[in-house]
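RETRY 2/3 - previous attempt timed out on the joint model. Re-submitting the same 305-residue input unchanged.
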Amino acid sequence: LQQQIDSVNGKPDEYVAQGWQSETAAFSGQLEKAKEFSNHAFDLAERRNLKDVAAQIAVGGAGRDALFGDCKQTKEQTTKALDMSRSPLTMVNAANALATCGDFSQTQTIIAELTRRSPKDTVQNKILLPLVQARIEFQRGNLAQALQLLETTRPFEGYALFQIAYLRGQAYVNQQKGPDAAAEFQKDTEPQRLAANLAFILSRALGAGAQPQS
Amino acid sequence: LNGDTTKARKAYQDFFALWKDADSDIPVLQEAQTEYEKLKMRDWRFQLDKDPALQEGSEIIWAEAYPPTTEELIPEDRPEAVLDAAAVVVV
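RETRY 2/3 succeeded.
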């Protein structure tokens, strides 16, 4: 990873490397460090006037902060992102983060706007928005309804497997259904392993030294 | 939830190893630490119930390791429990 980071430092897309480091820190539970990296990534993108990119970095940070329980930061980051861009991806991610923090009113406003703007967008309307609605129901404690909403995503869940399986797993945990929850959480391991091995194959092809996942 | 406490303990330990340098004030980490302590207490109680040989002196160790809360000492529906608690301290 360091090799890859060094290779983009000082280049126009340096923000990408800051993003990787932010995700790596978050993966290890180092939230403050993750915030520093993503703030730096945001500044780099903003300085180059890459508004959509900067907004997506901010909203990505908001999603992370929401899952870590920092809802004050989530609110600030989503506001910053939505002030810069109203692209569907930014809005969906903002809605997801806000729903996780219990801001259902703003979440519903975003859902309504996106549905109105793109009524025939399959990915948006069959996967991403049901996922946000399921998150709302989960946060409200309506677990059966959350699970039912996630059923609509099942034919397409390869698109956002991690988020869908994670939320479904959380709902099963709250329903005290241990085996069902475990099955959902373990769903992630196979694609992750494949992705890691693909990264290994690519890094080998590029001459870097990653290790395969067993 | 499945009742497999060995697997559960291993999963918590793996998580703590992965998050050994994590910020200590993260709610999910604090929750996991609390859950892990509860799991250890449950296992300890289970071992005690299974093996009478372990019971000798165990109450003192138990009381030192995990001091009971007021609610545990005097449940609302069983005020006489305060005597049991006193007995633990005396032992």
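The interface with chain B takes residues 28-32, 67-69, 173, 176-179, 181-182 of chain A (CB under 8 Å). Closing ticket.
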